[in-house]
Amino acid sequence: VNISALFLTGFLSGAIFAPFLGSLVDKFGRKRSCIIYCVLEIIINWLEHYSHFGTLLLGRVLGGISTNLLFSAFESWMTTEHRRKGFPEEWLARTYSDCSIANGSTAVLAGVVAQVLEDLLGHIGPFQGAIALTFLAMILVLRWDENYGEESEGSHAESSLYRQFVDGWKLVASDSKIFRIGLIQALSEGGTYTFVFMWVPTLLGMDPPGGVPTGAVFSSLMMAITIGGVCFQPVEQFFGTRITSKAKAPEISAVFAYIMASMSMAVPALCLCCAPAGVCFEKVLASFLLIEFCVGLSSPIAGMLRSKYVPDAYQGAIMNIFRLPLNAVVVSGTYATDVFEPYQVFGVVSGLFFTAAVIQMTLAIGKTKEVKKD
């Protein structure tokens, strides 16, 4: 089985469907979209039971669709529901921070559970566990209220799918702040996904004494994400009280996170280029932990900035539009791993994060924009 082909197919599918899915999310409801995500994930994990390459390829096509829903429908539902219930805007920061902490911690636990299931049921065990957990998640989603993020109750009924699609694209094209938020997301997440594709072969290729305990390294990387999520609020508070105003704290915090991520990826770029592999293993591993810390730190910041600049009515549409360039960056980055040397690819990833930091700085030095709740 060609793993690279399956990996690329998922992101190509995400790029193809991204421009249209967001409008469907906003038109037909975020809760319904979350349910569709759960159904798709159950189907995808069921397809993993088969060894036929075409079946696995179909799973990756569906995976591209479900990933777009995962990173748009849930967040847009939460943000709109938060405001509809009249909760303070400050609570959003805590919610995003808790999500980042939970993501890292759950990933560690999932690794342990997956190993137990594999020992009991074979290689297909983790996928069977994923089916059960996704079904449980769908039951929880069924208890939610529906929301569309429209300006007035029932206005979603009058708005056409075409209008949602066109208005979302017009908003991105006309509002430079929203455009920059999307570009920053594409660069930073694209760099992160490229790193995810590379970290295992890079460490294995360095051939350290005793081998690479990939399971332990994975758990350490996920814990780094958790620590990053824990540090989000203290970091934002530090910048909001010592460096800049409270209103600009998320923007400055994001610049800090992306610069650290860029520096972390410069380490393997330099080490793999200029130093013996045996000397650099610890430095490269430390840089991998640092970038995952930056992921945990920047994830809640990115969520805060999306909630700040992107209107509720078009969150689903715009967040999926963002995923079009993101998937293009990931596909390009993955292709680059087959064409260029690893140190060159890490150099490109470092450049992606640095560019994201520069664009983020333009938001930090501009005028603060009031959040649009409708």
Mean pLDDT: 86
N/C terminus separation: 47 Å
Along the chain, the helix and strand elements come as HHHHHHHHHHHHHH
Please give the count of helices: 14
Approximate strand percentage: under 5%
Beta strand count: 0
Q: Which class best fits the helix and strand makeup?
A: mainly alpha
Helix content: over 70%
How big is the Rg? 21 Å
- Characterize the largest beta sheet: strand count, sense, and whether it forms a barrel: none
Structure, described:
By secondary structure, the chain is mainly alpha-helical. The chain has 14 helices and no strands. The chain has helices at about 5-30, 30-45, 55-70, 75-85, 90-120, 125-140, 155-160, 160-175, 175-205, 215-245, 250-275, 275-310, 315-340, 340-365.
